[in-house]
Amino acid sequence: MNGRYVTVTIPGRKKFLTFCEVQVFGKLAPFLPHVLPRPLNDLHRPLGVNIALGKISYQYSTFHPLGSSDKAIDRNEASDFYKNSCTHTSDDFEPWWVVDLTSKFIVDNIMIIPRGDSCTGMTAKYEIRFGDSKENGGKSNPSFSYSEILVFHDLQ
Questions:
Q1: What distance separates the 2 farthest-apart alpha carbons in the chain?
Q2: What burial letters (b/e) apply to 66-79, b meaning 16+ CB within 10 Å?
Q3: Cβ contact 127:13 at 8 Å
Q4: How far is the C-alpha of 113 from the C-alpha of 72, rounded, in Å?
Q5: What are the two backbone dihedrals, phi and then psi, of residue 70, each rounded to the nearest 5 degrees?
Q6: 95-153, pLDDT tens digit by residue?
Q7: CB atoms < 10 A from the CB of 92, how many?
Q8: Is 129 exposed, middle or buried (0-12, 13-18, 19+ CB in 10 A)?
Q9: Using one digit for the tens of pLDDT, what is the confidence trace for 70-99?
């Protein structure tokens, strides 16, 4: 799939949206990927460059100052909210979080690191959308295939 905006949302429900890291792997369209070698102890992760790093993110609301949208693209993979590493919206209907990749990319994989602290039950089923629209948090963009979404728990 190709596009500019990656959206994480919880459709059809009033929930908190909270997770600790989003990593997006792909290449600038229409060029070939810039691939970095990965360490042997990191073979479970997608191969490539996390193109979400250093980009602009925003979310529907912010529950607590520690839960700002940029926490999900800061390279901090700690899954404990109180280690200043997770994003967190208020209890909203269909909350969303978006990263603007600033250019059109062909995306192969998206990895989400959910919370692993005492609020792990707050991790609802995420829906990932990817495309060129930023309106309404990118919720009109096509869904990203679940076979291309990797959710890792307890990486600490």
A1: 43
A2: ebbbebbbbeeebb
A3: no
A4: 9
A5: -70, -15
A6: 999 999 999 999 888 888 888 876 655 556 788 999 999 998 998 999 875 544 455 54
A7: 17
A8: buried
A9: 999 999 988 888 899 999 999 999 999 999
Backbone phi and psi for residue 24, each to the nearest 5 degrees, phi listed first: -115, 125
Could you give the angle at the alpha carbon of 123 between the alpha carbons of 129 and 74, nearest 5°?
Answer: 65
User: What are the residue ranges spanned by the domains of the chain?
Assistant: 2-32+45-151
pLDDT at 57 over 90: yes
Radius of gyration of the chain, Cα coordinates, nearest whole angstrom: 15
DSSP assignments along 28-76, one per residue: ETTSPP------GGGTTSPSS-BTTTT-EEEES--SSGGG-GGGGGSS-
Residue 41 per-residue DSSP state: G
Structure tokens at 98: 């978006």
pLDDT at 3: 93
Phi, psi of 127, rounded to the nearest 5 degrees:
-115, 135
